[in-house]
């Protein structure tokens, strides 16, 4: 049983926390954890399937089985040295306040009833409901029950979310001239200069300016030239830096963030096709987040007809690149040939499972809708010679249980920062059209 005098907290877990991270029960230090029996009932519905949440449900069941074994579990089990105890709490009756507030007997309300019962049973200890469902947290707080989001894999430094290119004004024209004459200068030449790996800069002097990037291996700052990729020309500094990273074989993992219309996916796809001889295949994928959280099975048509609306933005980007060339040109025909032979493949992210990612240029679009665990799963499957590019808008998250600080794209940027094989560019200026840029800023 849980100790009534223990000063540590009691955390009551919601189902979505487990579906987000099946190892969550080990992330609460020496605090005790209560698992409502309703959660086990809900997890049972998710055990079958090929999506990540199905994997999380199955893995958690295995973890739970390892903890419990053949023992009777109603007294709770220790989670290990330095950890608290885990206990499954059976259903509890609704208090009068709960009955008056919620007439429906649904899983969320049963979890609230258990959290309410726990708080009243252990008044000397702090009981906290952990849920990624904002509405459930609001319901709990309205009843006087403390509730929090699952924060273990959230971004700690919020500055990475809106990072912009650092600009040095009134920079020494002599050093800028050195960039143009010699192509680089040593980090030590600038006092107090402490850049991260692959960080980009704009140097502005009185008579000249230059775009530059820091190389951590040589500890030198190199000039970045404006170059196009398969007919796509960069229109601003951020796009120039992005293409520079995308074309660099030493940078194996790239995050391109920014609002709609900044050219993230277009630049990545153009760079991939430009380097088609260096990679066996180009994969362009995106997660499917159904509208109103409904499965795409509800949509009419066969499998292809169901997923095509979700993939259309990727085909649109490919069409933009194709239409920069004459249909009879070799460049245009190459794209047609690559698509036909499936060397260039546009597909839902779920369909990538089981495919080899060796020597591939892999672009993952809308990555802000992935969880940290999904991002890790994708990256750890990268074979030899593979380059991965994650693109997304951190301000436009469709998943109901993710936000700016907990989504996988932000998590990756935060954790991979200053690694020599990683680069992050935040594209600020929209280049789709003046109308699109105006709408993005004002509406």
Automatic annotation (TrEMBL):
GO MF term (any one): ATP binding
Keywords annotated in UniProt: ATP-binding, Nucleotide-binding
InterPro entries linked: P-loop_NTPase (IPR027417), PhoH (IPR003714), PhoH2-like (IPR051451), PIN_dom (IPR002716)
Pfam family, one: PhoH
CDD domains for this protein: PIN_VapC_PhoHL-ATPase
Residues in coiled coil: none
Domain PIN: 9-138
One CC-aspect GO term: cytosol
PANTHER family for the chain: PIN DOMAIN-CONTAINING PROTEIN, PROTEIN PHOH
Similarity section: Belongs to the PhoH family.
The protein's name: Phosphate starvation protein PhoH
Organism this protein belongs to: Draconibacterium sediminis
Highest classification ranks of the organism: Bacteria, Pseudomonadati, Bacteroidota, Bacteroidia, Marinilabiliales
